[in-house]
């Protein structure tokens, strides 16, 4: 597995690039054709995902249509969660075990190969890519630790609702999910911090990634922002690098969120 630093946008005033970090299978893994070993936790996640998707089925009826309404509300809530949290959870899901193995090998003074983060050389540099990862995990560790605590307290407060019969205790289930989500994002942030501290993260150029952003279509400009990612480029990225459907969703969320941020800031530019 390798991480792609997908260019998202650039703030022209500071010349700072924003990235979405996503996981892709390495060339060796693709050529081997051997399916990756699925952990017990991941199997549970897959089962929960299948159950959630099932709530949105239009051919299944429920009292007051609560299944479809719950699914629609949940999708809106998930879309509002920061794309940075989603990217961290995706890294934890795909690379959590590999990162732990890398740290263990380093501590045992065995030969190790750094975690590679591939960037677009036409847009970024090794230093900027590594610094972007460092800034992401530096702010994420205390934030997710704090939010984990708040959500665990919420679970305790709302858990008495389980005594109400025939009505799902959705608030507690939601807070449990958010607590688990913050735990995963915080865990992978701590792991990446340790790897960075021991120079076990290496930024390497990927010309193919850069070529996808050097097409004939100019970058869209909105106020102080220059938008690299578009829905068309997302489709090209997913097809070329054979990215998962979850990565596709994460990229679309990042695009929607940065566009919403740009639109929110545009009126302020004329003041």
Query: What gyration radius follows from the Cα positions, in whole Å?
Result: 20 Å
Mean pLDDT: 82
Largest sheet: 6 strands, mixed
Assign a percent range to the helix content.
55-70%
Name the shape in a single word.
globular
Instruction: Find the structural class using helix and strand composition.
Output: alpha/beta
SS element count, helices: 9
Beta-strand residue percentage: 5-15%
Topology order in helix (H) and strand (E) letters: EEHHHHEHHEHEEHH
The total beta strand count reads 6
Oligomer: single chain
Unreliable stretches (pLDDT < 50, length at least 5) are 27-34
Please supply descriptive tags for the structure shown above:
271 residues, alpha/beta, 6-stranded mixed beta sheet, 9 helices, 6 strands, globular
Report on this model:
InterPro entries: Mit_KHE1. Keywords: Membrane, Transmembrane, Transmembrane helix. The chain crosses the membrane at residues 148-167. It holds the Pfam family Mit_KHE1. This protein has one domain (2-141, 201-269). 61% of the residues lie in helices and 13% in strands. The protein has nine helices and six strands; from the N terminus they run ββααααβααβαββαα. Strands 1, 2, 3, 4, 5 and 6 form a six-stranded mixed β-sheet that branches. Strand 1 (2-11) and strand 2 form a beta hairpin. The radius of gyration is 20 Å and the shape is globular. Residues 27-34 have low confidence and may be disordered.
